[in-house]
Amino acid sequence: xxxxxxxxxxxxxxxxxxxxxxxxxxxxxxxxxxxxxxxxxxxxxxxxxxxxxxxxxxxxxxxxxxxxxxxxxxxxxxxxxxxxxxxxxxxxxxxxxxxxxxxxxxxxxxxxxxxxxxxxxxxxxxxxxxxxxxxxxxxxxxxxxxxxxxxxxxxxxxxxxxxxxxxxxxxxxxxxxxxxxxxxxxxxxxxxxxxxxxxxxxxxxxxxxxxxxxxxxxxxxxxxxxxxxxxxxxxxxxxxxxxxxxxxxxxxxxxxxxxxxxxxxxxxxxxxxxxxxxxxxxxxxxxxxxxxxxxxxxxxxxxxxxxxxxxxxxxxxxxxxxxxxxxxxxxxxxxxxxxxxxxxxxxxxxxxxxxxxxxxxxxxxxxxxxxxxxxxxxxxxxxxxxxxxxxxxxxxxxxxxxxxxxxxxxxxxxxxxxxxxxxxxxxxxxxxxxxxxxxxxxxxx
Length: 445
Description:
Strand content: under 5%
Oligomer: single chain
Distance between the termini: 30 Å
Number of helices: 17
Structural class: mainly alpha
Order of helices and strands: HHHHHHHHHHHHHHHHH
Helix content: over 70%
Radius of gyration: 21 Å
Shape: globular
């Protein structure tokens, strides 16, 4: 039976509705991890370090898609909840077009400034050339990546989360197959190029399939239609999605600082070890991000419809599930630390030892990160972009920045790994505080 945004959501129905979004985000992360696996094991640890060094810059440029998707889907779902489907479709069409234009502009600027930015990040010699080779190919496909990120949220608002999962699966399988074929078959000097091509082609698939679907006659709540420039809708979208934009920008900036600190304390091996943890963290955090994406249109719809009782129910059920998942993932991370380190860097004993010891500390961050991610997404869904942005800003920049600057001076490389844990703990406490402070405004407690 089809689940609608207007339904009353039990635990079972909430899980079934958000599960495709969770699976979509997990799979997106997994095929990114597979990319890293092939680069590390077939191209070597120097290209692997280069990818991890330049990746934060690439993500900064691409995160505009996530901002428009989360902020725009909140606006569109709220408009649907108010009963104005025609207006919602105009908003949707405008936002997709805006994402495409920004993707092209950022891609061109990224290519122009790629080399000087790589130097600024600390790349020298062979690592610098690897950064440029990989980055140029990814940036050519940046408009596709922006659209792919954007559509992940709009499939949920269109009541088609399973279709969104199918598109992600197609894109991910394409990436993994191309990785397996191109990286293995290409000569040594072109293996990094092969990995970048595999990612770029998969992003093209992830963008084109949704475009074809929403241009066709479909059974979803959304489809492309003639639109017009609406500055108020764009401002509201950017305000709503500013938290997700700030979160991704901040994480990328902090990731750059982590690499700087690791180059200082552990050299190239430290950057490679951090890359492993980031790949694993992508998978684990994608559970929380996927749940937030999947539940946000439901929250937005009922907020637009004025169903305060349902908002209260959604918050309580979501909090309970986030806490259970947090404990489970922390335990799983500790159990699988050795296996995951072996998969990526088992070919180098020293690097394996550094990665394993760091991961044992780093894994405790999963105990706290879910609450902050969900809280930020919850306020975005309520169209309260300022509160959402404040939670994200403090979590991903202020707390992380303070921790990564202070703790390594006290505990050397172990301070780098524990920085994430301390920052996530502080963010979780802040999230609970904001939910309490705002309880009367939205009447959800």
